[in-house]
């Protein structure tokens, strides 16, 4: 991925993305009494939000809130374009973070294009290795953080690195880390174009346009 954009909206996207990223990272570490402030404890069937605890019988309320949020997302996408995709989507935020490391370690888009088409040198291998090491570190941090919303994150991290964690917490940390590395490092816009529901209106327009072209050419 070589494209690089500049301007006011690009700065707004970047700063907003960093804000949401920091918010995502610190929430599991916020204590509230003797537990995490936000802990979706599926094993004990308790969903803790600071001083509020929701139980399975309260899931109807959560489902209603998710439905309202989903319809709001589709409404915004339909009438305001891809605002969610461009400024708030986690895929966008993580992709731009990966691109930031890519630019710092391998250079600008033109420089990377020239390097990739040329001979593979030792220096280039070292810089690419550092880039992928940074990507893997970010992916692992993401896996720990996301899993930490469902499992107490302090014991999760300590047990993981002391090899005392049980199978499922380790599985989910590795799973989300692998998804993050693949999506933000390699798939990027492919995920948005082919899998994201927010791009359905855009894909429908493209498909209709392609259908008209094929019908015209068939005449």
TrEMBL record:
Task: From the record, give the transmembrane residue ranges.
Answer: 12-30, 59-80, 133-153, 165-184
Matching entries from PANTHER family are given as: FERREDOXIN-TYPE PROTEIN NAPH
Record Pfam families: Fer4_5
Q: Does the keyword rRNA-binding apply?
A: no
Q: Does the keyword RNA-binding apply?
A: no
Q: Which domain of life is it from?
A: Bacteria
Q: Where is the 4Fe-4S ferredoxin-type domain?
A: 63-93
Q: What are the record's GO terms for cellular component?
A: plasma membrane
Query: Per its record, what are the GO molecular function terms?
Result: 4 iron, 4 sulfur cluster binding; metal ion binding
Keyword tags: 4Fe-4S, Electron transport, Iron, Iron-sulfur, Membrane, Metal-binding, Transmembrane, Transmembrane helix, Transport
Q: What protein name applies here?
A: Type cbb3 cytochrome oxidase biogenesis protein CcoG
């Amino acid at each position: 991925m070589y494209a690089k954009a500049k301007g006011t909206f690009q700065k707004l996207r970047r700063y907003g993305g960093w804000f949401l990223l920091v918010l995502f990272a610190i929430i599991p570490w916020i204590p509230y009494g003797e537990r995490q402030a936000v802990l979706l404890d599926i094993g004990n069937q308790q969903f803790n939000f600071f001083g509020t605890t929701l139980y399975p019988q309260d899931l109807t309320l959560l489902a209603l809130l998710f439905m309202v949020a989903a319809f709001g997302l589709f409404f915004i996408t339909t009438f305001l374009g891809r605002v969610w995709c461009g400024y708030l989507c986690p895929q966008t935020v993580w992709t731009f973070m990966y691109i930031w490391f890519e630019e710092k370690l391998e250079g600008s888009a033109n420089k990377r294009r020239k390097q990739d088409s040329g001979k593979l040198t030792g220096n280039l291998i070292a810089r690419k290795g550092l880039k992928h090491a940074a990507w893997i570190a970010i992916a692992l941090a993401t896996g720990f953080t996301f899993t930490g919303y469902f499992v107490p994150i302090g014991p999760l991290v300590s047990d993981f690195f002391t090899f005392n964690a049980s199978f499922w917490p380790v599985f989910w940390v590795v799973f989300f880390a692998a998804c993050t590395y693949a999506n933000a490092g390699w798939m990027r816009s492919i995920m948005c174009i082919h899998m994201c529901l927010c791009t359905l209106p855009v894909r429908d327009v493209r498909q209709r346009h392609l259908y008209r072209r094929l019908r015209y050419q068939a005449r």
